[in-house]
């Protein structure tokens, strides 16, 4: 049966430390997302962009006890969660386009509203900070902790994903983590595969293990793909690049395994920043990886 995909744009930059990522959804669409999805054998419908609030002037000095623009993040979270939940209820697969990674709170809350879900977090970063531990106060470094109710986020109704448990979360490709964040991850039941694990074991074994973690006793898996997961030579248009990421082919291999598992429930592409990109290269890569995740094959 052909899979129906609903594209949901979330043009935000509230959670990021650099401007421009709010143009990510437009850049990804312009790079040919709909056509790539059709080539994967799915039927895409573009629901357009969420109406997002204008944020106040940025406070460059916001410190470690702050979550910058958290009111705007909450508003977008509630809106995206409803859109994701509605898409699933209507038998379509939601594909959220960021925007910065704070949109993942909405994706997770919506996907886990009426189901038990697992998560695979393809990212250079753990996104496990809280307002108390974050060195920057940027919420794009907090969405996984928020959805799991870690630390300051315990009991925060709008941010906590009800049907998500730590033991069904796998972070793949971690290579940049703050000290307090690392301690919180070690104290959790989240499974982490660093870039060293990928180097030693290969992307296939690591991704298959991550799928086992995320599918164990769940109704489906949310895939969160931050484009800074890839090496900056492959994906230059991201706000927080970290050298030593996965290659183009490794990224496609991982997405192909996701498609083969048939476990994907919801999906998001985040942190494409066209201002920092080269000839829309990162947005184009995002469309290709989405196609692989939805089943595109060489033959």
From TrEMBL:
The keyword Nucleotide-binding appears for this protein? no
Cofactor(s) listed in the protein's UniProt record: Mn(2+)
Q: Which reaction does it catalyse?
A: L-arginine + H2O = urea + L-ornithine
**Which Gene Ontology molecular function entries are recorded, alphabetically?**
arginase activity; manganese ion binding
Pfam families named among the record's database cross-references? Arginase (PF00491)
User: Which CDD domains does the UniProt record give?
Assistant: Arginase (cd09989)
Instruction: Alphabetically list the UniProt keywords.
Output: Arginine metabolism, Hydrolase, Manganese, Metal-binding
Q: List positions binding Mn(2+).
A: 101, 123, 125, 127, 226, 228
Q: Is Cell division a UniProt keyword of this protein?
A: no
Which Gene3D superfamilies is this protein grouped with?
Answer: Ureohydrolase domain
A GO-annotated cellular component: cytoplasm
User: Top-level EC class, please?
Assistant: hydrolase
Which family does the entry's similarity section mention? Belongs to the arginase family.
The entry's protein name is Arginase
Q: Which species is this record about?
A: Haloferax volcanii (Halobacterium volcanii)
Identify the coding gene.
Answer: rocF
């Amino acid at each position: 049966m052909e899979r129906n995909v609903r594209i949901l744009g979330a043009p935000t930059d509230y959670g990021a430390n650099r401007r421009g990522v709010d143009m990510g959804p437009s850049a990804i669409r312009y790079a040919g997302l709909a056509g790539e999805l059709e080539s994967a054998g799915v039927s895409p419908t573009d629901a357009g962009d969420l109406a997002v609030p204008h944020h106040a002037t940025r406070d460059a000095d916001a410190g470690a006890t702050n979550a910058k623009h958290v009111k705007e993040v909450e508003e977008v979270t509630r809106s995206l969660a409803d859109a994701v939940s509605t898409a699933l209820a209507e038998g379509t697969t939601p594909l959220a386009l960021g925007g910065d990674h704070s949109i993942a709170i909405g994706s997770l809350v919506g996907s886990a509203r009426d189901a038990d879900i697992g998560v695979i977090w393809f990212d250079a970063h753990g996104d496990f900070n809280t307002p108390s531990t974050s060195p920057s106060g940027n919420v794009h470094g907090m969405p996984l902790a928020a959805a799991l109710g870690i630390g300051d986020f315990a009991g925060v109704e709008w941010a906590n994903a009800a049907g998500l448990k730590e033991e069904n979360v796998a972070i793949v490709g971690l290579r940049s983590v703050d000290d307090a964040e690392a301690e919180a991850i070690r104290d959790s039941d989240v499974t982490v595969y660093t870039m060293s694990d990928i180097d030693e074991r290969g992307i296939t074994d690591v991704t298959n293990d991550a799928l086992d973690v995320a599918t164990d006793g769940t109704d489906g898996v949310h895939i969160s793909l931050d484009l800074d997961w890839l090496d900056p030579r492959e994906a230059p248009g991201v706000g927080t690049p970290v050298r030593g990421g996965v290659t183009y082919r490794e990224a496609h291999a991982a997405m192909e395994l996701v498609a083969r598992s048939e476990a994907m429930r919801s999906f998001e592409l985040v942190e494409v920043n066209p201002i920092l990109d080269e000839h829309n290269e990162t947005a184009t890569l995002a469309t290709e990886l989405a196609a692989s995740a939805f089943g595109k094959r060489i033959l």
